Amino acid sequence: MQGLxxxxxxxxxxxxxxxxxxxxxxxxxxxxxxxxxxxxxxVVDTQTPDGRPIAYFGIVDEVAKRFEGQTYDTDAFLVAExxxxxxxxxxxxxxxxxxxxxxxxxxxxxxxxxxxxxEAYQRALSFDTMERKAVIGxxxxxxxxxxxxxxxxxxxxxxxxxxxxSGVATKTxxxxxxxxxxxxxxxxxxxxxxxxxxxFNVKGEDLLWLDQPNSKLSEEARAQYERLGLPVGPFRSxxxxxxxxxxxxxxxxxxxRFEGVDPYVWSLRQFARERLLRxxxxxxxxxxxxxxxxxxxxxxxxxxxxQEGNLQDPTIEVAGTRLHDFQELTDLLDGGALDQMAxxxxxxxxDAFRRRLHAAAHHMGHLVRGDxxxxxxxxxxxxxxxxxxxxxxxxxxxxxxVVGAILKRAMEEKEAKGTSKPxxxxxxxxxxxxxxxxxxxxxxxxxxxxxxxxxSLGVSLFGAQQTASEVERRVVSNAALRVVGRLDAxxxxxxxxxxxxxxxxxxxxVLQPGSMIVSQPEIPVPILLRFPFPAWATRASxxxxxxxxxxxxxxxxx
Amino acid sequence: xxxRLDPWDAEYGAGFSGGDDVVGEETPEGVDLEAEAPAGExxxxxxxxxxxxxxxxxxxxxxxxxxxxxxxxxxxxGYGAMGxxxxxxxxxxxxxxxxxxxxxxxxxxxxxxxxxEPVKLAAAATYRxxxxxxxxxxxxxxxxxxxxxxxxxxLGRELAAAPERLxxxxxxxxxxxxxxxxxxxxxxxxxxxxxPAAQLRVVAGLPSGARSPLFGLRSSQRFERLxxxxxxxxxxxxxxxxxxxxxxxxxxxxxxxxxRALADACCALLPPxxxxxxxxxxxxxxxxxxxxxxxxxxxxxGDQRIARRRIEAWISREAGQAAFDARA
Lengths: 558, 328
Prior knowledge:
Chain A is α/β, with parallel strands linked by helices. In chain A, 29% of the residues lie in helices and 23% in strands. Chain A has helices at 75-80, 118-124, 171-184, 219-227, 268-273, 277-280, 289-306, 326-334, 336-341, 347-364, 396-417, 431-434, 442-457, 473-477, 489-492, 501-508, 549-556, and strands spanning 9-15, 25-30, 41-47, 53-67, 88-100, 112-116, 133-138, 144-148, 158-163, 196-201, 238-243, 261-264, 266-267, 316-318, 321-323, 368-369, 386-390, 424-428, 459-465, 479-484, 515-519, 527-530. In chain A, the strands form five sheets. Chain A has a ten-stranded mixed beta sheet with strand order 12-11-17-10-18-19-9-20-21-22. A six-stranded antiparallel barrel of chain A has the order 1-2-5-4-3-6. Chain B is 25% helix and 28% strand. Chain B has helices spanning 139-160, 197-204, 256-269, 288-301, 304-327, and strands at residues 31-32, 55-73, 76-92, 97-110, 119-122, 125-131, 165-170, 183-187, 215-217, 225-231, 245-251. Chain B is elongated and about 80 Å long. The chains are: A alpha/beta, B alpha+beta.
């Protein structure tokens, strides 16, 4: 190929003729002394029969060695004992990623094959044709890997789906890295300033330190950031929210971090106005037809009540009773008030409603309050670029409520605005809990709405789950960027991972933390990449400010 | 009557045969039993040490007939043949076993006094014309065979030029290499026993890794040689008592002492390289490096069907052109 720097390519062998050579898939024989490994990018420059130059770019997805011409397995021992001469055949399978020009003739056996780096590498994966792109990782050989931004910002697609085994797959870390890359590079251009992200902190406290630099970051990781053109540091604009504790005073209920964390609650009026009662019934088993009808009726009554009286007053008056907290609402609905709100419902259904409301109130009731202060602690995600909402210490019922309430408001705000800009990113782990494949729930409906319409509204969901096979099909299938970390071997065989191909699927079962396989619409093969260790703290001991030596040592002992 | 098994695959003929000679008490003509030990004192030789050998090269060649032709020139008819041959070597230096000097030759043998031009049928396939002196149908085949033998001989000579190297040539020695005395002929199929009954009994009783005493061979067709029998592997129960016996020879010019040192060295060198029973039809005589080399050389010659097709295509074009010329 013309204009290719010679330093960027190394001749490694020739296209084989002993196996079929096809336009999209061929084998290369590696010459003695050369090395070709998985994920290497190969270019084959050749000519069509009528003399036009044609270049095949492809990625190596299989390599193998074998003693050639030997029939018996025990021949290997004889070769090792120098009794038998043997020739080693070293072959590599190339999955074609790009043809220049697009003339689909097979490459000629015997044509020279070269491993390429740098600019040629970028060309092989069509990164040079992406007008707007964001860096999403680095290969084992140090090449930057990009994603076409048009498939993340809604122009042509949106959403990322990240799957993998908990603890090893580093799913949330990767989702945060994606956000970091989007917000701290010039990928988004002018949109970067106004773009927002909501991150739900579902497990542990990893995400509660995004605003702190990582004091333990290695030089190697720093070099990787530099190589990717990213600054080394924490997220620049972060607000942290934690649920309010039970009790009179509104204070954040956090584990390790106290400073810089704002508590969040809903006022009763807000709860009523935004019709959030459904999310207290968000468990899939609660979503039966009859029950949801009663919920809708009650929501309707509450919404009316929220429009009456002083709109700044966190309390509301329903059926002649002023409600000061969620318990009072539960008590009110225990009585005849509920029968009046849903006069046609069977008494069994009403009892079921009451039973479930009591159960829910026990877990999430303290997040909906009527006291003076309540209205002062909403979650405001417009005041910072990244908003972390901690739910990890909440009961599952309360988690569903918070996620449901936030997602609903986020969608409604974007709908009201009517434009896709500024972009709204949402990071949610354990998606299988919120949008399960089996059953139906109001959150699932909201998530489906985001998956299907979010693209045009500028809402991009970075969903993570242990098993994509347990997440609502349409939520997964709408994701433009599909990412897997370490997969369970049985899970890897499921249809959801067909896009990986046979060879890559096997590799997904042995991926190390920090390695991901990414598939994106414009590149026909999934790419294995790594992402640098977080430049922001993921625990107290890494945060510069609260350096806790004792904690560090206790962790080292683990 | 004793019935014993010849371990070779039946398709390959006998591994050890008496030939047409009847083994008697008399020493056959041209055989000198006393080159190393007096005829009456023959017994197995089990050497503890042989000649110092730096590296060993096994030299071998393969050939095949691709087409038989009928040729006509100036009203005279004759036979012709086209075929390919390849020669090469395997070098064992204690560290590795590698193929070396693989050479392919394509030949067009013609049993007429006139020779055609060389014929190029592919980039790597030019057929070299050679005369076949024997005018019978198998004459051209013999000519190809002899040509390859010569090629093998030339390679053997070249490799033998290095003094520290032992060259093991497959088959009877066709050339004397007097300078260093480091070429050994390895005869895996023993066609003639050469020895009278008393000495042959010693061969039959050789243990694994042992050899017979040297004996001299003289004939009108070839130079004088010193030869010995070597047992590669002990026969299995039921095997013929000559199973696993090979004959080796070295040019007599090398001298008795050198011959003895080489013979002793071969006792240590060759048995570990024996072919494997069950995996090789001519085990154990077909040595591992030689079997591998033959396979490799066959591959080097290319696919026989393609060679045949190329020849057919070329000849039919020639014939078509000739017919066209005749009409014009």
